[in-house]
Amino acid sequence: MEVIGYGTQDASIDLGPLKFTREPVRAGEIAIQITHCGVCHSDLHQARDDWENTVYPCIPGHEIIGEVIEVGEGVSRFKVGDRAGVGCMVNSCQQCDQCDVGDEQYCTGPKSCTLTYNGPKKPDGTNSYGGYSTGIVVREEFALTIPEKFTSEHAAPILCAGVTTYAPMKYFGLGDGHTLAVAGLGGLGHMAVQIGKALGAKVIALTTSPEKADALKEIGADEIVDVNDDDAMEKHAMSVDLMVNTIPYAHDINPYLQLMKAKSQICVVGNFLGFEELDTATMVFNHVGITGSLIGGVAATQEVLDLCAEHDIRAVTKSIRMDEIGEAFQRMLDENIEFRHVIDMASLRDDDDAAAKAVQVDNPVRGEVVGRA
């Protein structure tokens, strides 16, 4: 499959058109013509090598929706013409203890899981290219069924933003009678508010932008707390059972510790850059844990898709053309975003100028789609 993508070959270069070839479909695999792809903050981090692990060329995108255009021998869950999704992974060993319980993101195989772009989670120099492209090939075990209720634009963000926030809620048993706090109210956070409500929790939205209060109430937040308002923070001290912290950069987490009940958890899902200091005294005396969670397994991704369909949960989205990705990245950098950007991939597929200017790059390594025989 000849493919046009948008990516970069260096942290200092803006994304632009690249071309490469996806390998032919094999047994157990499906080929998808991508119609939509969500834009995640991690796409920006990875393209700019903020985590110092990027394998170039980098073609981001892991919130992929498209149409199945070919199926390999033995495929049973999809047929040509079906709509399918691909989230953050395209492969894992499928044999280790973590894979066996549906947590492929924590695969302990030789290369760990293979991410939809940037190759194995433990980088070894090989690469995979993501959804900022016109097509992808993936094993059917890593493809998702998209509920008919969703438009493709609204389904795409659930494949990362949805499952990333749902996974810790599921793990810690969030439900009726619990209080969930959400810190960071961008693409992930606004999904967390809605999912927490669907699971039966009271939801507190923690923000530094109180002007967002009406919009946050519209999506289900029970209370909005301005983190910079000391009185409001004191009023909510020791009231939270679980906090999902989606803030994607290093920040002072200590004020949030004051909100947590005894034996509660703050789950970090967005910040890979660490915290300079931790108020360990509060953690010890109140038995508050700070934990982390990475995306979610394939089964959890399907669960949250179905949950969102059942409860009519929608991401707040803004459709963009592929050539507007630089502006979308800048809005994320400026923290000027109240929605999830979703790329309409027809804008790339029909862009003759992009095809003409596309730079040839190496084909992604075949291992991106290898799974259990």
Provide the CATH top-level class of the largest domain: Alpha Beta
Query: Could you give a short account of the major beta sheet?
Result: 7 strands, mixed
Quantity of strands, as a count: 18
Using the CA coordinates, give the radius of gyration: 20 Å
In one word, what is the shape? globular
The number of helical runs is 13
Mean pLDDT, rounded to whole units?
94
Supply the number of structural domains: 2
Helix content: 10-25%
Going by CATH, the homologous superfamily of the largest domain would be Medium-chain alcohol dehydrogenases, catalytic domain
CATH architecture level-2 label of the largest domain: Alpha-Beta Complex
Tell me about this structure.
By secondary structure, the chain is of the alpha/beta class. It folds into two domains: 233 residues, Medium-chain alcohol dehydrogenases, catalytic domain (Quinone Oxidoreductase, Chain A, domain 1); 131 residues, Rossmann fold (3-Layer(aba) Sandwich). It contains 13 helices and 18 strands. Helix 4 packs across helix 5 and helix 4 crosses helix 10. It is globular and about 60 Å long. The protein starts with a strand and ends in a 13-residue tail after the last strand.
